[in-house]
Specification:
Strand content: over 45%
Low-confidence stretches: 1-39
Number of helices: 8
Distance between the termini: 41 Å
Structural class: mainly beta
Number of strands: 55
Helix content: under 10%
């Protein structure tokens, strides 16, 4: 189906229902027929409980029943059913980050979407790769609902919500003794057990216990025989304790403690192609000494061809990979305690205090790009035989140290080596570790006549490192584990990058928002927030080389006992002449950077409600995303905040009769300025002589715009048949961006690089291009039918969901869209079909039985690429989940 036909059909359908077309509140939220019959959907999008259809915000809401039916357990599952929501899975599903309405989060930048659990933002984390800043695995268990708020939320939800916010609302303890136990078994040996127990201890004390254990084999199969047998697995345990205590008739204390421990193998990418001299884009230059030649790219592309031929000879599927990493492990631990105290001070004033403390820890080891490379047979030497001439990489690698008359040193053909292996720094260390304390005080009130309602508050957040984020990363070595330096150096250029950083964040704000009802039909809303951000980053990162006895300044590494030397990564501030050759004491490499920013954000909106079933609104809001620090780009470590101006109009309508339900629409226009963009940085010739390599960093170079339209409908035909449909059209475009520059060329970027080790910079986006990970069109349609059975038999329903989206760019760099006919930097249009059969109250018993299948038609497509084509000549991608199916049995008591 062509997407212009889809759009036309939706618009015609909306018009047919009348100019009633409804707000952006995705009525997909309107639970199933049975759940809906119980009353209105209640949301907290404006920090108070309100009826969904009365809130002038674009929202998609999922009840727990919908989450269960759709088999939604982690963030990546949620995105499949929410048209404006996508996830960046570059580093695997458990480390995904949310994108809403085209707002992306690049590596190292602050989130564009805030993720909240029980009104508290996810524990802050800032490791070497995207992770943290969200909720732990298992958090989708035992929820009241999930609310996806679209667009700028920078007044009531502070920290970095230019794209929107995702709110997870857990089920609150009740006054009934109730609970459930649920078990799931599916293919890939999925075994999941979840349950909850609600205990009314006394009239004023209620407790709810929730737990989940979920395990499933990985769908990416490792064919190397080294390390784990599979990747992209699921393996986590989750627990939650919720306690409500009525301290006085008008005083409630609500405490939640959560714990999540995910310990999977991590992700793996599949190689689908290799650069060669005939490649249409980024062809491989194999002639050393000519313009554009790179010895490391030549080496890796030739090794890639060997692996690709091996994969093809075996007839591997797209879900088969090869990696030489002996350890594939991603362990994410997160716990948080949230305390909410609510005092109903009077009929017109409620005082609410929300306080939390949590910790996030990550310990990871994996192959950054899954490969099982060996040295190609490219050159022949009369002394060393066949292999790869190393003077192609470094002219000094000859028998005379680069002087005339010598022979090139060779890496022996067939010798194994690894590209980039990330590892922890040793036992007891973490690749990321951060604690977060938040405190928020709210005054929620209304005037005596009820015309004015308001929320006023203050917010404090302190995130502090738990030790250092430490990592040992092996590059062009052959390691059992970089952590303990059990490595050989077959290419003679290998090294261990030792990152050691600490990041402290202060994010504070004061805010106020009020709505004044001029009449019963017309209301004006205005809000403002002033945010104060501060980041203090420190690093003492080094580059380690394994050396022979007698090497000057060598030392014995205490972890491995290996003889080594070190240099400071920051060779600008800590040159060799200034003591940049540390031994065991790396304090001479210490660098500290402070980044502060403050900004106001605001909202002004007008709502018109001609009757109880129709709401029309318009609003303008300003959003702000803080700047940041990244120590890997020496001299260009910091960047400035990004601003958004958002204009939105929408309507939402409810109706009843033979066909009842909701219809909602919203249109928006967003302008971004000082856009934070990833850029490729290449060292100057002088810096290359010092061993400094190319890098990628974040700079402010862009102005962009986002134009979009969202529509949804939830229609109930009689008693048993329901259709939920939601659609989003999002047109993103980079309006202007600084051109690639050379240091000192007089341009803004050329001037910015003066005093850094870099000679050129090239932003990864260009004027006129679309945003990455932003499909222009996405449609979700769910049809469900409840069979007209006698009540004594239970309720049997059938449901099918179709999700279709247009193709999109997933990498904005100089990477081919397709290689060997397979998507690389471009993800083609996709169609997913999911289905479920639910039998609730089997034969009048307290047992529910469900059968489910996701990706019924075995659709396969790439969800991310590694950007390795430009530097390594390697095309590698991550793929979506295959077909999953299973059976779910649930026993409930007490009405749960």
């Amino acid at each position: 189906m062509k997407f212009h036909m889809i759009k036309s059909g939706l618009l015609i359908g909306s018009a047919a229902i009348g100019a009633l077309s409804a707000t952006p509140v995705f009525a997909q939220a309107a639970q199933n027929a049975e759940d809906n019959a119980g009353g209105d959907i209640i949301v907290t999008a404006r920090r108070v409980e309100e009826r969904l259809q009365d809130v002038p915000i674009s929202i998609t809401v999922f009840s727990q029943q919908q989450l269960t039916q759709r088999n939604i357990a982690v963030a990546t599952d949620l995105a499949a059913y929410t048209p404006s929501l996508t996830v960046n899975q570059r580093f695997g599903p458990e480390k995904s980050v949310f994108n809403i309405r085209g707002y992306n989060q690049d590596l190292g930048t602050a989130p564009t979407v805030g993720v909240y659990f029980a009104e508290v933002v996810g524990v802050r984390a800032q490791g070497g790769t995207a992770s943290g800043n969200t909720v732990g695995a298992g958090s989708f268990t035992d929820l009241q609902n999930v609310q996806v708020l679209k667009g700028v939320q920078g007044t009531l939800f502070g920290r970095n919500t230019t794209g929107g916010a995702v709110l997870l609302t857990p089920k609150k303890p009740t006054n009934r003794l109730e609970g459930y136990l649920e078990g799931t078994y599916g293919n890939f040996d999925q075994m999941r057990v979840a349950g909850a127990l609600n205990i009314p201890v006394s009239e004023g004390l209620r407790i709810r216990l929730t737990g989940e254990r979920n395990k499933r084999d990985g769908f990416m199969v490792n064919r190397s025989g080294i390390g784990p047998t599979d990747y992209n697995d699921v393996n986590y345990a989750y627990g939650r304790v919720s306690i409500v205590a009525d301290l006085a008739p008008n005083l409630e204390n609500y405490t939640i403690a959560t714990y999540s421990n995910s310990f999977g193998h991590g992700y793996a990418t599949r190689i689908i192609g290799c650069a060669d001299p005939s490649s249409p884009q980024g062809p491989l230059n194999t002639t050393a000494g000519t313009a554009g030649y790179s010895g490391t790219r030549h080496l890796q592309a030739a090794s890639c061809a060997i692996q690709l031929a091996r994969q093809n000879a075996r007839g591997d599927s797209l879900y088969d990979v090869e990696t030489s990493s002996t350890v594939g492990s991603v362990r994410l631990k997160q716990w948080q305690v949230i305390n909410t105290t609510t005092w109903q001070a009077s009929d017109t004033l409620t005082v609410k205090n929300i306080m939390s403390y949590g910790q996030f820890r990550e310990n990871s080891s994996w192959d950054l790009g899954a490969s099982n490379f060996v040295v190609p047979n490219t050159d022949t030497s009369p002394i060393f035989g066949n292999g790869f001439a190393l003077n192609r990489i470094d002219p000094r690698l000859t028998t005379t140290g680069g002087a005339p008359g010598g022979f090139a040193l060779l890496a022996a053909a067939g010798a194994p080596y690894q590209r980039i292996i990330l590892d922890s720094a040793g036992p007891g260390t973490n690749t990321a570790a951060e604690s977060s304390f938040t405190e928020e005080l709210q005054l929620q009130g209304k005037s005596a006549d009820g015309k004015l309602t308001y929320v006023v508050g203050g917010y404090l957040e302190f995130a502090r490192p738990i030790g250092s984020n430490q990592q040992r990363t092996g590059a062009f070595l052959n390691c059992v584990r970089p952590q303990d330096l059990s490595c050989t150096n077959p290419l003679r250029i290998g090294s261990i990058a030792e990152s050691s950083t600490k990041m402290a964040f202060d994010n504070h704000g004061v805010f106020a928002q009020a709505t004044y009802n001029f009449t019963d039909k017309l209301a004006l809303t205005g809000g403002i927030r002033y945010t104060f951000d501060k980041i203090v980053g420190s690093a003492q990162s080094t580059s380690l080389s394994i050396v022979a006895a007698g090497t000057p300044r060598a030392f014995t590494d205490p972890v491995s006992g290996v003889l080594a030397t070190r240099t400071c990564v920051d060779s600008v501030r800590h040159s060799v002449a200034l003591g940049g050759l540390p031994g065991l004491d790396v304090s001479s490499c210490f660098t500290q950077i402070v980044k502060k920013s403050t900004a106001p954000t605001w909202l002004i909106g007008l709502d018109y409600k001609p009757n109880d079933d129709l709401l029309i609104y318009g609003k303008y809001s300003r959003g702000y995303r803080q700047g940041g620090i990244n120590f890997t780009t020496v001299g260009l470590e910091t960047w400035e905040p990004e601003k958004t101006d958002s204009f939105e109009v929408g309507a939402k309508a409810s109706f009843s009769g033979a066909v009842s339900g909701n219809v909602n629409i919203a249109a928006f226009y967003n302008k971004l300025s000082d856009q934070q963009v990833f850029a490729a940085l290449q060292p100057s010739l002088a810096s290359q002589a010092l061993g400094i390599r190319g890098s990628g960093g974040v700079i402010n170079v862009g102005k962009s715009r986002i134009i979009g339209f969202e529509a949804d409908a939830s229609l109930l035909f009689g008693e048993g048949f329901r259709i939920d449909a939601s659609y989003a059209h999002i047109d993103t475009k980079v309006i202007s961006v600084d051109a690639p520059a050379v240091v000192g060329d007089g341009s803004r970027l050329g001037t910015l690089m003066i005093g850094t080790p870099y000679g050129s910079v090239a932003p990864n986006v260009r004027a006129g291009s679309a945003f990455v990970n932003s499909p222009k069109d996405k449609l979700t349609v769910t049809g469900s039918y409840t069979l007209p059975l006698d009540e004594s038999l239970g309720r049997l329903s059938l449901g099918v969901t179709w999700v279709t989206q247009s193709g999109y760019v997933n990498d904005g760099g100089a990477v081919p869209q397709f290689v060997n006919g397979l998507g690389l930097s471009f993800t083609p249009s996709t169609n997913l079909v999911n289905a479920n059969i639910d039998w609730r109250g089997v034969g009048g018993s307290p047992i529910d039985l469900s059968l489910f299948v996701t990706n019924l038609t075995k659709e396969i497509y790439n969800v991310a690429s590694s950007s390795a084509w430009t530097g390594a000549g390697v095309a590698e991608v991550s793929y979506n989940q295959p077909r999953f199916f299973g059976v779910r049995v649930r026993y409930s008591f007490g009405g749960n």
